[in-house]
Amino acid sequence: MAMAMSDSGASRLRRQLESGSFEARLYVKQLSQQSDGDRDLQEHRQRIQALAEETAQNLKRNVYQNYRQFIETAREISYLESEMYQLSHLLTEQKSNLESIPLTLLPAAAAAAAGAATASGGEEGGGSAGGRDHLRGQAGFFPSPGGASRDSSGPGEEGKQRTLTTLLEKVEGCRHLLETPGQYLVYNGDLVEYEADHMAQLQRVHGFLMNDCLLVATWLPQRRGMYRYDALYPLDGLAVVNVKDNPPMKDMFKLLMFPESRIFQAENAKIKREWLEVLEETKRALSEKRRREQEEAAAPRGPPQVTSKASNPFEDEDDDEPAVPEAEEEKVDLSMEWIQELPEDLDVCIAQRDFEGAVDLLDKLNQYLEDKPSPPAVKELRARVDERVRQLTEVLVFELSPDRSLRGGPKATRRAVSQLIRLGQCTKACELFLRNRAAAVHTAIRQLRIEGATLLYIHKLCHVFFTSLLETAREFEADFAGTDGGCYSAFVVWARSALGTFAAAFSKQVFDSKESLSTAAECVKVAKEHCQQLGDIGLDLTFIIHTLLVKDIQGALHSYKEIIIEATKHRNSEEMWRRMNLMTPEALGKLKEEMKSCGVRNFEQYTGDDCWVNLSYTVVAFTKQTMGFLEEALKLYFPELHMVLLESLVEIILVAVQHVDYSLRCEQDPEKKNFIRQNASFLYETVLPVVEKRFEEGVGKPAKQLQDLRNASRLIRVNPESTTSVV
């Protein structure tokens, strides 16, 4: 029901747009008033766009369907024009002959003229081909003055080949043509090429028409009488169209070689007519020759004569297997209509972008010719088909090129990829598919807007990248499921490269901008979570993410470690070893919650009356800062960072422990000395065990260095003359 309503709505919209009284401005104004919001306008826009695409496809299909009919019609018009010209010429000659006859012979001559006119009219009515043969038989082939000539060598193939060799020796870059057996020159002459769109003169050329192809060569101005090879067109793929005179553009004809065309101008109308006639004659002769060859190849042969064993004294007497006649091996029927029309059908499929239909035709031909011999007719057919296969491959390759639109996601490439795989181009399909997706990923990342909040940008970046990677992996698995494993290894290499692009954008936004360690840890955590989603399809790239980010994470840990050490040393230099007075119960309660979140459960025993805390401000600040560093570092942790994190913790703890130990040695006031011992006890018996336990929970194994640091009775050697300690 919904589809029927949609079809009726599309038909109504089409009628409304096609009406003669349609005004775009009024239509848009009315539509804006009737729509409920942006969604209605978007849906209507999509319907109009779909209708435009459908109209474009129908127009393209109609153009290609009428393409050959247009060529044939133009060709017949050219035939009729030439025949009418020759008929007018003959009648003029007959009139002049009649006027020169004496009056006494007028009755007999008039009767003869009437008979000739009747015969000419009958042949014209019998068909254009018969009329052309009759006129050509009476008038002969026009001699070519100046720049055009027809082959005048003897009928022997050797004479024709010698003439072709002599002429082609004047053309640079076409020596390979001389190696084609049975090829000879039919006609040649000078032409001027014009641009098809603006009819501007391009260059002077010389055309060499052989019995199976047309060679176009350009003039070499600095070398008189010499040419340079420009193009070679097989006659079976060439269409000739007469161009109507439109002064000053006259004596022109067009050559159509799908999908291109070229326009040439002859020296005069006579030479133009000769070119048109001889091109059609040669094409017709070539078509007839190939038809006869195919019929001969398909015709049944008589039983071959087998040489008796008695007449061959060198034959092995024990060999009783009968020899397979060579004539029977070369028997392949190519006279079927679908085989005859296969090259043209492939051209139509390629022009209409019916890639599936083209590959279906190729599969049908390959199945038919499978296990069959390859006589010359089959080889010739395969050569013509291979040229279409090359054209089809080029079109499919262009469909997958990054220059095309990257919208539609990976599924938009499925059509071209599947047809390339069917053509046996699996490796090329894999390479182009992955190159297309790499360009799409790069474009999607580049189009992301850099938000003010780094974490928000990283969320968008991870969503865009890993969603695209996941869709690409699923589409790759669907397209290349039946291929060898080499394509899958290529996909893994591509995924590694794509992750490099992602890591570069990630590091630039997170680490190069000197974000805090907590922000960096949250961003890395988000990236890991998205990367783990690829495990649903059996693709684990977490280790690659670690490898690509390890250097930046090490730098961030080292930088934050240095910040903590500098802050601790600064507080140590101003240490007065006094108890903390938080002034309000709310501040004390907040500190208790902070220490509890750091893992210090017995902080109550270090609080005194009112709002006093029996610890130094330096030790409390150090505890909060160290536990915060450990928590954020564990979010960044993976095995490659184990020693980096452990060494950073040891360096940070040593700064505080050395300061407490040095103060305990140097302090002379008994009351302050007891307070320092209380702070040292808090560090050794509370803070360090909490650090060890949290590290073991986050990493999965204990840290011997932290245990040794806590258990050592004298960790450092003190320089009495300095306020700093030495390890």
Automatic annotation (TrEMBL):
Occurrences of domain PH (ranges): 184-284
Superkingdom of the organism of origin: Eukaryota
GO CC terms of this entry: exocyst; growth cone; late endosome; perinuclear region of cytoplasm
Listed transmembrane segments: none
Signal peptide boundaries: none
Key words, A-Z: Cell projection, Cytoplasm, Exocytosis, Protein transport, Transport
Molecular function as annotated in GO: phosphatidylinositol binding; small GTPase binding
Matching Pfam families: Exo84_C, VPS51_Exo84_N
UniProt function note: Component of the exocyst complex involved in the docking of exocytic vesicles with fusion sites on the plasma membrane.
Protein name: Exocyst complex component 8
Gene encoding the protein: EXOC8
